[in-house]
Amino acid sequence: MRTTTRAATAALATLALVATACGSDAEEAVDDAVDEVEEVADDAEEAVEGEVDDEPAEAPAEETTDDAADAEALTIGIVAPSAVNDLAFTQSMIDSLDRVGEERDIDVQVTDGTFIVEDGGAALRGYAESGLDLVIAHGTQYGGPLAEIAAEFPDTTFAWGTSADNLGLDNVFAYTVRSDQGGYVNGLMAAQITDSGTIGVVGPVEAGDAALYVDGFVAGAAAQDPAVSVNVNYIESFSDVALAAEAATAFVESGADVLTGTAQMVVGATGVAVDQGIPWFGTQSDQAPLGADIVVASQEYHWEVILTQIFDAVEAGEPGQVFELTFENGGLEMIFNEGYALDDAIRTAADEAIAGLSDGSLATGL
Amino acid sequence: MWGDFFTTSVLVATLASGIRLATPFLLAALGEAIGQRSGVLNLGVEGVMLIGAFAAYFTKLRTDSALLAVGAALAAGAVMGLVYAFMTVVMQAEQGISGIGIFLFGLGFTDLLYQKQVGTPQPVSKLGKVEIPLLSDIPWIGEIFFQHNVLVYVAFLLVPTAWFVINKTTFGLNIRAVGETPEAADTLGVSVRLVRLQTIVIGNVMAGLAGGALALEVAIFQQNLTAGQGFIAIALVYFGAWRPAGVMAGALLFGIVSAVVVRLKTLGIVEGASSSLLSMAPAILTIVVLVIVSGRIAAPAALTRHFDRAT
Cys-Cys with A75: which of A132, A137, A238, A338 at CB 3.0–4.6 Å? Predict the structure, then answer.
């Protein structure tokens, strides 16, 4: 359904190993193309036979309908900063697209790992030039190049997140996530788990859903127990795993006995949590695989909730709007790790908070 | 609030952290320094570090053997060294461009391997700390210097080793001669190409080990794990004036400043915009020192210059 394009490998085409590795993909593509040609040929033969035999062309008609449906598949290109299976920001979107793809005819192309904004911009331009129905810039950092590219391609529809601003362009949909809601629930639980009264938060850059999650976490912990100290360290990088690990280590050495963090570099921090046996609260994707015994709960994004709305709007030709994920619309879900023995009272408090945030009786204050 | 930082426990932990952070820089920069002393610039250190990191991580993941993991990092570095030597010494390709090619190869290749062979992030067990008997029990000093994993000790022991090899051995004399006046070295019967091939392999082996040390310290691999550390290592070679002790000083400075920044932010002493600015401190400090010392140091005269006996 999707193909992964890697700008970096293009520069390495001179080296045999990559050429060999890419060769298998190329062969698969060729095989697919051959299969399609053979199917078309079979269809043609069947159609001809139907005419010769003077039989009702029901079967070919059905296939033609299928072909028409294939032709109407919504073509989507997505540019994302990290790997498609990062257990964080990018994977949450890819998993959501997969879920949407189970119920809707979409054709998705992915360019992941474009942590360099200029590379991401080049990929966005490439998708725009190729005439896809929708081009998704999945990363706050792509706002700069997107503003320029979207203006150049007014007939192409773009989606950009996380952002609550569609750049003032009718062909840009913005999507954002109320990550503070899950952060609030996580903070509320963390404040009840900590014995030392000190919690550490490893953040990337103070922007987008990462900052919102951190702020929500701080608010949740404060609401539960104002005496709990929540220290935040934005390491100013989405990719520096070593620095994230060092920040987590510093937290532990400073007395923190509960940790959380957001963005793809947190795998460094979760490593420290596993090593020290410290409870970890995740966000973006279910992070239990990073620490089966220490991950308490994760806020998971279900982008499919807004993707469906965006796809509907694209097909209806409606101008750019802003969408957001919340507990209320099902775009956010708390995943509790069964491998962690969470106290029943804490779980109950968390469920009550989720219910309150969903029905509006509780607010994060952000 | 600053009082929270100036406590014995925090200062000791910060210095220990600085040494830990300096280790990958030191290993990579030492290797690069040896290569540059022979006249070979390798901008591909970052890529080789990534390949070494993936090799170590993947081996650890599959075998759970730290020894094999380190061996894999060394072997990966050696292979990349032979590739780079073939490109720059045998084929005489331009060193700067070749190095960038190696970097891009390492970046893309490790990501490709990771996606195909591992997929989603899978932690491995960290390298255990080796506490040096008696020394590790010394108050403050023990925690700062003698409670690290074995690769930290290896890195710092390689500093006097590199100094000895460069300054006190025939091989070291050949390295320096080849890096300054390869024509003269050639007339004295020194094989310029062989010496450069050897230094390239040594440098790349150390870069591979640097990547391995990083991966085994954070106990995971991810795309672009090194996050620019290889390029900083190259800057540290200039910072250290191509001398092992100078390179070590640069690596320590960078590591300790980074550790201080992490602690200040962790303790909430600096926040917001100040925090963002402070994050640039290690790089800014390195640039400032480079500017200050640049007029007083001279690079190896034949650095980046090819040697062709026929000419």
Answer: A132
